[in-house]
TrEMBL record:
PROSITE patterns: ANTAR. The lineage of its organism: Bacteria, Pseudomonadati, Pseudomonadota, Alphaproteobacteria, Rhodospirillales. This is ANTAR domain-containing response regulator. It comes from the Bacteria. It comes from Kiloniella antarctica. Gene3D superfamilies: 3.40.50.2300, Winged helix-like DNA-binding domain superfamily/Winged helix DNA-binding domain (1.10.10.10). Residues 125-186 form the ANTAR domain. Pfam families: AmiR_N (PF21332), ANTAR (PF03861).
Length: 204
């Protein structure tokens, strides 16, 4: 993963899912100084109607269904505004994949560092999700790779190690993963692969 760079928040948009009070007015002023445009809403929030780069939300009064996405899969960083440390509240906030939090009452400092931490944690979350998806895809394609190996072994009368070497070499030459390359293999292509591999190795 690339090194995280501290973002410039100027021009970003924030949605604050919280009843308007003195805390929220202080938060709005902090965000304004950072060049962030904020919109206060409670409890309704539609990401399509109110585009946002981040969401601050009331961690003390949040509930399932507050956000317009599947639980634990936020498309943007979530920052909880909390005053309660009740275990149930903390567990609920964590279940939403919250990226950072701010303690209420909002203080004169801390908003910028919280935003930086939130963006860094969210970037890590997205990176981990991408890695998991890649692994799941590779695992789901294992039967395809196994079928391709069997075809190469049968058509070339080869042992499994030699068959895998042919498959790996062909995938690298085609700049594809082994799983993606194996998906479109048939016996005609396999015979061509074996012939080309034998010529390259001086075995013809």
């Amino acid at each position: 993963m690339s090194v995280f760079r501290t973002p410039n928040f100027r021009g970003d948009k924030a949605v604050i899912l919280h009843r308007r009070d003195d805390n929220i007015r202080r938060l709005e002023r902090h965000l304004d100084r950072l060049g962030i445009e904020s919109t206060v809403a409670w409890p309704d929030f539609n990401l399509e109607n109110t585009p946002a780069d981040m969401v601050f939300f009331d961690g003390d009064n949040g509930y399932d269904g507050l956000f317009p996405w599947q639980k634990g899969t936020p498309p943007i960083p979530l920052i909880a505004l909390i005053s309660s440390e009740a275990p149930g509240r903390l567990e609920w906030m964590l279940s939403q994949a919250t990226s950072a939090h701010l303690i209420k009452p909002i203080q004169s400092s801390g908003v910028f560092s919280t935003l930086v931490i939130a963006y860094a944690n969210f970037a890590n979350l997205q990176h981990n999700h991408a890695q998991i998806k890649t692994l799941e895809t590779r695992i789901s394609k294992r039967p395809v790779v196994f079928r391709a190996l069997l075809m190469i072994m049968e058509c070339g009368h080869l042992e499994d190690e030699a068959a895998f070497a042919i498959l790996r070499s062909a995938a690298m030459n085609d700049r594809k993963s082994i799983e993606d390359f194996a998906t479109n293999l048939d016996r005609n292509k396999v015979n061509t692969l074996i012939k080309n591999f034998s010529v390259d190795k001086g075995m013809a």
